[in-house]
Model the fold of this input.
Amino acid sequence: MPELPEVETVRTGLAPTFEGALITAVDQNRADLRFPFPENFVGRLAGRKVTALSRRSKYLLADIDGGDVLVMHLGMSGSFRVQHAAAETLPGNFALDRSKDPKHDHVVFHLQTPDGGAARIIYNDPRRFGFMDLIGRAQLAEHAYFRELGLEPLGNDLSGETLARLFRDRKTPLKAALLNQKLVAGLGNIYVCEALWRTGLSPMRAAGTLVTPTGKPTRKASDLADNIRATLQDAIKAGGSSLRDHTQADGSLGYFQHSFAVYDREGHACRTEGCAGTISRVVQSNRSTFYCSLCQR
DNA sequence: AGTGGGACCTGTCCGC
DNA sequence: TGCGGACAGGTCCCAC
Done:
């Protein structure tokens, strides 16, 4: 569940349990996910407290007292679930949760919450494109994961002007430009398709065509910036998109997938007011692009 | 320098 | 029912 709105939804779901909790133990069930776990992963976490849980782009960042930051990326199929010991039962008596295949439970954080209760946060990832790392707080910004990350689309930096600066003279298609995490960080296949549809822009159009010869944003560039933000905010409000039964941290499902205008709607009617078009699917950079060739130019 | 294409994994769905 | 192929929300690496 891994574009920005899904990661933000996960952060919101985990924070009440994770923040302030003491990590009493960690089960690390294999040596690697996408990458090997860092040296002494369990030892550097056990006995430590989580002081804050934040997000940058599609990364979750758990601040650990002592100076490490636990960096977590969900890849394509990563998810977390939270289990609390029922207050009225003995500590450690957790409700059974069969919603995931336990053979893909790769990491379990055993926690003691500030109120003295016990909880577990379990990371499940069938495809293992996700990863976890531990990085010193002071090294975080220069680390390879973050050094070249582009602007945060929900921050104040995303605007027609900043898009114009990033897109100027670029011949690359808008779809590829928006998927490039070095330009704007956090968009993925779904929300790029949706934001381009909202703006009436063809995914094939060259990014540089949104910039005037003097480097100013065109009207479309400003609209695109607004629509990227609006699309992400709408999705966060809906609890993200739940595809293929991916559940949120509390087991509930996001519902933004019901609001898709183009993603996974090949052959269906375009939802633009007054547009008679049909949604097409094409492949760009080896990924599916969904768009309406009538109203996206 | 900047791009497209393949690779990394497992699961699921669809057509034969 | 079984099997092969296509496809899936991401990103790194490597040829052009």
